[in-house]
Amino acid sequence: xxASRSKAILDRYRxxxxxxxxxxxxxxxxxxxxxxxxxxxxxxxxNKDTEMHPLVRWQYRGGIEEPDRKAxxxxxxxxxxxxxxxxPVLIAGLAGSRDIYRIGxxxxxxxxxxxxxxxLATPITPRVVDQAPCQEIVxxxxxxxxxxxxxxxxxxxxxxxxxxxxxxxxxxxYITADPDTGIQNVGNYRGQIKTPRRLGMNPSVExxxxxxxxxxxxxxxxxxxxxxxxxxxxxxxxxxxxxxMPENLDEVAVAGALAGGPINVVRARTVPLMVPAEAEIVxxxxxxxxxxxxxxxxxxxxxxVNLQEYNAFMEVTAITRRRNPILTSFxxxxxxxxxxxxxxxxxxxxxxxxxxxxxxxRGVKKVAMHEPLxxxxxxxxxxFERGTAESEVWRALxxxxxxxxxxxxxxxxxxxxxxxxxxxxxxxxMSYRCQPQHDLQxxxxxxxxxxxxxxxxxGETAAVLVNAxxxxxxxPVALPQREFMEGARKLWERLGLPPLKPQPPWxxxxxxxxxxxxxxxxxxxxxxxxxxxxxxxAKRRRDDVKxxxxxxxxxxxxxxxxxxxxx
Length: 567
Hints:
Layout: H1 3-11, H2 26-35, E1 39-47, H3 52-61, E2 71-78, E3 89-91, H4 98-105, H5 109-121, E4 127-128, E5 137-140, E6 168-177, E7 184-195, E8 198-201, H6 210-220, E9 225-231, H7 235-241, H8 251-259, E10 264-267, E11 274-276, E12 281-287, E13 293-295, E14 298-299, E15 305-306, E16 309-321, E17 327-329, H9 338-358, E18 364-369, E19 379-384, H10 390-403, E20 410-414, H11 423-432, H12 436-439, E21 440-446, E22 461-467, H13 482-494, H14 516-526, H15 530-538
Parallel strand pairs: 1-2, 3-17, 4-10, 19-20, 20-22
Antiparallel strand pairs: 2-3, 5-16, 6-7, 6-9, 7-8, 8-16, 9-12, 10-11, 12-16, 13-16, 14-15, 18-19, 21-22
């Protein structure tokens, strides 16, 4: 696309008039993505039901490295019946990569964790306004029954064509209020487009979502549940909506603390709720608390299709929007994906703070939730300082499996030379630093959480705690020492070979058992003086030992824990 056309598209979102605020809205964020070369504008007809999500999916399943992933803005959505839609669709625009998340969050990645901890502790009450961009266009009452004026006018993509039975809202922030306390909850749930005025609602019961508690209370009163569904909003609200928080916290107030100032909210038109003033599109309605109806199949973030089940639905009472709205759609399903990045960046520091600060467990350096295919919740690595007491290691393993009832099926403790984000490194530690009969515990009666339920034990699962820490001194890691790898890299680059992306471990290092005599022999070998070592070996011949018996070194009475088993 030529530069003039791109500029014309982006100019639509340069809003002159704006409410006082300390945060970017989605329009500001889109322009920031374009400025950072993180936005691909697709300015041609693209079928939202068959092409849109598959196109973006390729950047996650096609070998594109995370730093090279971008947001996609589709300006001319169509469907399989040839219909065209007015509003553009943004996919992977909130967390297509960590860098996209950083742009939306407005802080360097190394400051995100601390900001989250502070925001959860000191939320900022939203600022109420009388007029708001999200209500520049209002459709309610009989106007909703006109063709294209209700849900049928929204270009909601099909996430997993070939499996999903309808378009689903994938980045829908459902706002409800506790009827007892009035505290609002904002959570991200899927919503099936069922008819122009009926929207599905899957409350993720297995995650104990706040909206489900509100629904139960309204059902006990024989009342419908008022609800407002936000499609597109200031990024900090989206980041808060997907975070797991205590039920007494209003996610919009936490979003304000993330932003450093209050979020503007306005009263919804037909339901007693406050909605983000800078939202792109707001769907208002009443969720039925008496009847449930079939919903799904739908491809889920655990990597499998969730088959049909009974869930709630909402009757739409109004749709409000900006004059130039952008409809957002998370790309989810098989991870890595946008939905896994948006959760991982925030959940890992929360886990770390819980272990290190709340429980004062010594030695914890990092928590890593494994992302590819496992969707964060199943495999969790905890990195410790070398020499951390074993009692602290087990405290952390047990604590990690209870922070969330649904998170932590495989929890592995590793030393600080193991990168817990690297699955190969985790398996390496589990293979050679763990004796399962001593270093593994199974904790039964674990909630299965978000994922396919097994056919046994009513779907219950268990947590497996693995202590894959060093239990003593080990021989060095069998890679060339750092100085030789760095020297070879200079040669590599001088030869013009492909760019390197070092994967830890990329050099050898000492793990505690490296006797001086062997160090001297290795240094001698690098000076090409290894025949001297051969002559010394001949002087130490013995006929009273077996093959593979370790050789005691002068001044060392402890053989290495790991022997060399190469053929």
